[in-house]
Inverse folding.
């Protein structure tokens, strides 16, 4: 029997190729649709989430094929959500990943159908992974996935984002958006391979808490960069989020309070990570991710300090 | 224990209520999103498909709860496909089921999110039904569902429909569209409850053939009505499909050839139905559906005759 290529979570080329080939295109496919799908499948992201899925799966001895199905499925869900987000009626973006958005290149209708094709395939891939589980564990996992993707998760986050101008601009609101839009996918990435691998409930809980802390943290970092970079670059241009009235925790509560919140989230995340690694040393790759977050945090706090100093200088002069 | 209401496939009120309540709306849902979802869930169709699912399920002793989950799921998939079809970038419809389309009432973005919410929930409901199956039967059923909904089914049909003007206007093309758009859902309706109920492979095959014959037949009847009613009503107004260059078998091959094709499809369907009912008399409700199709066929052939006679009269005068 020929040796199957090893589904190495670190092998980006292999993951990229899997992303491209995990949605088979039938011969009788409408040519316009086929072109759009080939375009989408040839423009993957950085594959950071699929790598994380593999590493979590590996820590719980999940079979590599199931881990791979989940990895590609989540990346398909994410890509589909980006296609929808970029539509004229949503964020109205023109470019994504350095290329024209799908709706710009192929029209809105074909973009929507392409996203739906990814979603259909993603559910099928997830089911394959779930079907390999003991039957009494299946419904718990599928319910979890449904909640993160649906009206309690990703979709609600996107809706709140769209309607933000009608909602109170508070930390709570911006975090409700982030919990939907950003945190849902991170939770799925860390938790689904663990559940499929039969992780104990306590470790699932800890992984969830890390996902929420880091997810909200990543969003807060993004928000702070949006506010701080504009100010430091020009001193005049309003932050893009504020200009477009997009959810932004730093705009909602101010830079200082946002930094405090971020530091608090990372601190809780650190305590949780420590507990988790005592139980599951094989998840030590998470420390490296925490290291990446730390660098981002330093950049943002340095910018915040600069801004504070400039403010003080202007006051004095 | 309180007696559960009987999931009577004939109880339209119960099915309509299930349609309304089978997508639970969480308390933290964005208000704009909630309004749209309530609107969608309160405007169901005729529930003919859910009734069919229950009756097929009953013929194969499928537990009523699973039948019900499939019934509502398929109706959610269908409703979602209508929401997408009505969008400005697709068919650009303004009204549906006697009410403003979702995108007209709530905006395109919220319409899209509502459709995605239905899809997410539909997959979860289908999965519940599949999870109750023996594990070795699960992947066959989920693969079948994936194919009917995805790039080999519904989505390809919709894409071909959108791009029809660029394709040869032949019977083959119009039937490729119909196989995707119309036939996919009928196949799912007849076949999924049978598969879940453990139907023998031969009966699945016969159900599939009936679904294809009647699905193409229903579409041909629709197409013929579009052509014949315009002509008989005004003698001048071009058929709407032809005006908009939409797939229409009668426009593609002419009324006579389309009627011949329709009669051929129904004939093959009849032979198949006969074989199936010998094996599974409990599916006799299908004869009633065939009766409904017969009435439609008579109307259309009567109109075709009228038109032929008018044509002969004009030639003579």
């Amino acid at each position: 029997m020929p040796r199957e290529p090893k589904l190495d979570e670190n092998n980006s080329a292999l993951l990229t190729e899997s992303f491209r080939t995990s949605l088979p295109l039938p011969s009788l496919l409408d040519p316009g649709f086929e072109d759009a799908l080939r375009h989408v499948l040839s423009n993957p992201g950085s594959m950071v989430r699929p790598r994380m899925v593999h590493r979590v799966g590996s820590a719980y001895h999940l079979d590599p094929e199931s881990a791979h199905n989940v990895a590609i499925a989540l990346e398909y869900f994410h890509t589909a959500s980006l296609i929808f987000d970029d539509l004229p009626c949503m964020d109205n973006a023109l470019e994504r990943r350095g290329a024209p958005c799908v709706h710009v290149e192929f029209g809105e209708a074909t973009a929507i159908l392409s996203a739906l094709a990814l979603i259909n395939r993603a559910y099928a891939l997830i089911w394959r992974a779930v079907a390999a589980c003991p039957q009494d564990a299946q419904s718990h996992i599928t319910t979890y996935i449904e909640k993160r993707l649906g009206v309690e998760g990703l979709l609600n986050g996107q809706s709140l984002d769209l309607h933000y101008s009608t909602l109170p601009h508070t930390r709570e609101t911006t975090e409700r958006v982030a919990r939907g839009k950003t945190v849902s996918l991170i939770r799925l990435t860390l938790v689904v391979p663990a559940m499929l691998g039969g992780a104990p409930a306590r470790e699932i809980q800890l992984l969830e808490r890390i996902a929420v802390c880091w997810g909200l943290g990543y969003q807060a970092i993004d928000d702070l960069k949006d506010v701080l970079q504009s100010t430091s670059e020009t001193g005049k241009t309003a932050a893009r989020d504020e200009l477009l009235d997009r959810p932004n925790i730093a705009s909602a509560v101010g830079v200082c309070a946002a930094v405090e919140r971020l530091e608090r989230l990372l601190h809780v995340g650190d305590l949780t990570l420590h507990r988790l690694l005592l139980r599951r040393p094989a998840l030590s790759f998470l420390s490296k991710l925490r290291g990446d977050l730390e660098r981002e945090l330093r950049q943002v706090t340095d910018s915040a300090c600069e801004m504070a100093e400039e403010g003080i200088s202007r006051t004095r002069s």
